[in-house]
């Protein structure tokens, strides 16, 4: 018995060994063959790769200026190297800490509300029976997503004005004194987050709605038979089914955690609210582009990118572990 | 095999095209032996060409070639200063050959170019080639050269501005004044009385308490840095310094305006006005173009603005309310007749010349020829710039106004002045408003094509220009036109942010007026003192 078994095993192994090189050869041949046939497609790829190299990777060389005392007329090769001098200056400067702190608060709030609000709206929309009504609402919510902050900035300053702005007029009807949404440090961050929700919610709502439609209807039927009402169905069927997409959306936004929204804040902030509203990007803009302190601006920006990279890696690991989601 | 070589050929052709694109060969002379002058420029949306003309082939380039024997070759254009500077900086860092002649507005870039040694000194060229009237003009405004002066050597020809073109006057709703039998305010106190009535007596007659006294703007750029809604006269009513401007102190040094004692008084006054509702609640939030809406909408009785604002934005008021009457008045004065206003800079940028440029004589010939129009003594522009463009002849007389030209030719009036190298008709500081003042005061007839083109503007505009020119002695100009100093690059963001924050917060009453003293201390100790020293070093080096 035993002998026979080993014999069989051996023969199997032999067969495998025999097969293996042939398979590899085959594979190689196949690849070669594929390339011979597909090379025009690869050639077509070249311009795209070149563009990416030139415009995405080439400019990255500019990072070196964060470690230099960069002078434009001396260029990258002539400027003096200063190592981590600019980073040290950044951490020693109180205001830089304030700016990082503002950025974190605003973007974390945006991250959280940017998931909770669209999910809620998606769930509510999903319960609407009339398709026409549902679609109308969906479109209306989605619409602001297409407007640029440059335009919205002007509109919002008008709407939020304490001098007869729409919102304050409505609040006035309830006997509330005019609120200085864009001019007081107590209100500025909330205003930023609210307006961000208003503009961006539509997009994520659609993503989540798509996830809901993808849920297998059998699950609902089974749950109904087990006596679950709509609420319980939502809680135990819809939400768990949506979890992967929620994690994906959350992961992707995690990489943006130090982007508190330059376009938005730049168009809405003013000296009265620098204390609570000035973020890394607006700060870098003023230091680097307006005042020409290129090296320091680049250092702050690089620091931001570095933290973002770490967060993306963490987010990616988490998503892989808990939602089995892989991008790469 | 065939396919392979085909691919190789393809790739070779593509890369050759790419390389060829980077290596444009430049001719320096035309076939007739005329010099070719290469240049680059901004070309904004306001520059209109007739059909078939473009930046390299138009009535001006043709004229230059025929009359002066200069062929201009504009290598590239960009629609605004920002993109222009960016392109120039790219060209610089790529070590591309510089154009022969080009204008730069950014002081940092001017300094970089001079430091790189690729632009040439023009001291000798002025001496040798500039016409007497150009020399005289240059001698009249030596400060205009400071921007492009290093170690006493001049590298740039300034592109002179109208001097006081964007200095401000007070435009008042005359119909509101008349309604309450008021005189136009001449002092800050009188202004307050008028504003009190404008705010509380419902001058627009709509029964709602929705008017403000005066349209001022600070917005995100800060106090004293806007044209329409300019706040500088309030600071000027208390002393000689303007926020954001470096100007001369009594000891002859130059000092930063925003930390001077007169700021404190003016800010206290602005805060008082803010509390009393004379100002827009959003003075520190709205940018200039949004702040002006209160006046256009007929919700404000006074706006501080340059004379040209009478067309726009003030013109929009008349389409909203045809009965509105707006008149210009001199800026109000403070106690003891103290007055001041922010003055426009004498130049906007400088022309620089590549070291390889060999035809400075031609450049000055060209400059003198186009300046001839502005001087009113020209061999080329007797009736205007170019017939069929900015004027047409009818019965032997030139017609300048747009409507008239359109009626006669059926084509729109086109301003060929914008095709000139300085991107506009060359200006002489104070000259234009000076002429308008004479028109206003003496009703003398225009003596040149240039003057004739100025005549026939709205009387309010002419009066405003006259008022600005009469108050020239109160203007305070920014004397620091050099590149940002070393400490400025390091700490200006911080210094300016502190300033904008404290100014806005004092006006809004979030900080007490005494916080200003604290700000001055902090400003000085966190780099301001050092910046002041450096700015003075620069100032002494260019004089």
TrEMBL record, chain B:
Protein name in the entry: Extracellular solute-binding protein
InterPro entries: Bact_solute-bd_prot1, SBP
Signal peptide extent: 1-20
UniProt entry keywords in alphabetical sequence: Signal
Species this protein is from: Oceanobacillus profundus
Residues annotated as transmembrane: none
Presence of keyword Mitochondrion: no
PANTHER family per record: ARABINOSE-BINDING PROTEIN-RELATED (PTHR43649), DIACETYLCHITOBIOSE BINDING PROTEIN DASA (PTHR43649:SF12)
Source species taxonomy: Bacteria, Bacillati, Bacillota, Bacilli, Bacillales
Coiled coil: none
């Amino acid at each position: 018995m035993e002998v026979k078994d080993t014999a069989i095993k051996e023969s199997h192994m032999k067969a495998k060994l025999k097969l293996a090189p042939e398979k590899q050869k085959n594979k190689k041949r196949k690849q070669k063959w594929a390339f011979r046939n597909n090379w025009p497609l690869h050639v077509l790829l070249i311009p795209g790769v070149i563009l990416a190299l030139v415009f995405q990777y080439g400019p990255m060389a500019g990072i070196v200026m964060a470690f230099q005392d960069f002078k434009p007329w001396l260029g990258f090769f002539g400027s003096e190297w200063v190592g981590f001098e600019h980073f040290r200056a950044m951490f020693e400067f109180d205001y830089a800490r304030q700016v990082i702190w503002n950025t974190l608060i605003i973007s974390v709030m945006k991250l959280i509300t940017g998931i909770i609000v669209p999910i809620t709206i998606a769930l509510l929309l999903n319960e609407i029976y009339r398709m026409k009504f549902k679609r109308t609402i969906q479109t209306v919510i989605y619409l602001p997503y297409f407007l640029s902050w440059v335009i919205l900035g002007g509109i919002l300053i008008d709407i939020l004005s304490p001098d007869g702005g729409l919102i304050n007029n409505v609040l006035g009807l309830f006997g509330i004194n005019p609120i200085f949404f864009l001019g007081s440090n107590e209100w500025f961050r909330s205003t930023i987050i609210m307006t961000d929700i208003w503009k961006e919610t539509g997009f994520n709502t659609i993503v989540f709605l798509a996830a809901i439609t993808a849920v297998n209807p059998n699950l609902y039927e089974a749950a109904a038979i087990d006596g679950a009402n709509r609420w319980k169905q939502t809680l135990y069927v819809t939400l768990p089914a949506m979890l992967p997409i929620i994690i994906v959306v959350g992961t992707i936004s995690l990489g943006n955690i130090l982007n508190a929204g330059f376009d938005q804040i730049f168009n809405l902030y003013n000296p009265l609210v620098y204390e609570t509203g000035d973020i890394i990007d607006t700060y870098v803009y003023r230091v680097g582009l307006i005042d020409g302190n290129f090296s320091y601006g680049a250092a702050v920006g690089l620091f931001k990118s570095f933290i973002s990279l770490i967060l993306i890696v963490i987010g990616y690991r988490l998503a892989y572990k808990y939602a089995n989601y892989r991008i790469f | 095999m065939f396919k392979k070589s085909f691919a190789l050929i393809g790739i070779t052709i593509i890369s050759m095209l790419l390389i060829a694109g980077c290596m444009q060969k430049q001719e320096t002379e035309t076939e007739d032996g005329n010099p070719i002058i290469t240049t680059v420029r901004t070309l904004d949306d306001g520059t209109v060409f007739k059909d078939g003309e473009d930046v390299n082939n138009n009535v001006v380039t043709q004229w230059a070639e025929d009359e002066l024997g200069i062929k201009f070759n504009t290598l590239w254009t960009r629609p605004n200063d920002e993109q222009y500077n960016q392109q120039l900086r790219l060209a610089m860092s790529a070590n591309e050959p510089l154009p022969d002649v080009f204008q730069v507005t950014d002081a940092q870039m001017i300094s970089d170019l001079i430091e790189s040694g690729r632009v040439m000194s023009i001291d000798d060229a002025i001496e040798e080639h500039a016409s007497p009237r150009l020399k005289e003009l240059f001698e009249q405004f030596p400060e205009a050269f400071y921007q492009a002066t290093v170690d006493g050597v001049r590298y740039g020809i300034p592109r002179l501005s109208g001097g006081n073109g964007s200095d401000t006057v007070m435009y008042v709703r005359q119909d509101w004044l008349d309604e309450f039998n008021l005189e136009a305010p001449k002092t800050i106190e009188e202004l307050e009385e008028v504003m009190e009535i404008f705010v509380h007596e419902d001058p627009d007659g709509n029964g709602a308490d929705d008017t403000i006294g005066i349209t001022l703007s600070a917005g995100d750029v800060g106090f004293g840095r806007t044209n329409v809604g300019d706040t500088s006269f309030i600071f000027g009513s208390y002393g000689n310094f303007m926020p954001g401007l470096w100007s001369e102190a009594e000891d002859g040094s130059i000092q930063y305006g925003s930390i001077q004692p007169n700021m404190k008084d003016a800010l206290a006054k602005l805060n008082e006005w803010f509390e009393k509702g004379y100002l827009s609640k959003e003075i520190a939030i709205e940018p200039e173009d949004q702040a002006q809406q209160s006046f256009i909408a007929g919700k404000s009785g006074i706006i501080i603005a340059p004379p040209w604002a009478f067309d726009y934005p003030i013109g929009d008021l008349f389409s909203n309310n045809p009965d509105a009457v707006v008149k210009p008045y001199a800026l109000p004065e403070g106690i003891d007749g103290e007055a001041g206003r922010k003055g426009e800079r004498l130049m906007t940028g400088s022309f620089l010349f590549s070291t390889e440029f060999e035809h400075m004589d031609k450049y000055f010939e060209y400059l003198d020829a186009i300046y001839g129009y502005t001087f009113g003594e020209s061999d080329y522009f007797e009736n205007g710039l170019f017939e069929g463009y900015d004027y047409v002849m009818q019965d032997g007389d030139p017609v300048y106004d747009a409507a008239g030209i359109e009626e006669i030719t059926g084509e729109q009036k086109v301003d060929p002045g914008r095709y000139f190298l300085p991107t506009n008709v060359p200006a002489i500081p104070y000259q234009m408003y000076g002429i308008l003042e004479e028109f206003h005061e003496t009703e003398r007839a225009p003596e040149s094509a240039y003057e004739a083109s100025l005549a026939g503007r709205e009387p309010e505009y002419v009066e405003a220009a006259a008022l600005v020119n009469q108050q020239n002695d109160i203007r305070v100009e920014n004397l620091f036109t050099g590149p940002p100093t070393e400490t400025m690059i390091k700490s200006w963001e911080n210094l300016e942010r502190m300033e904008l924050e404290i100014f806005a917060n004092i006006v809004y009453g979030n900080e007490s007026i005494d916080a200003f003293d604290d700000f001055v201390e902090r400003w000085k100790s966190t780099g301001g003192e050092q910046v002041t020293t450096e700015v003075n070093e620069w100032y002494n080096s260019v004089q």
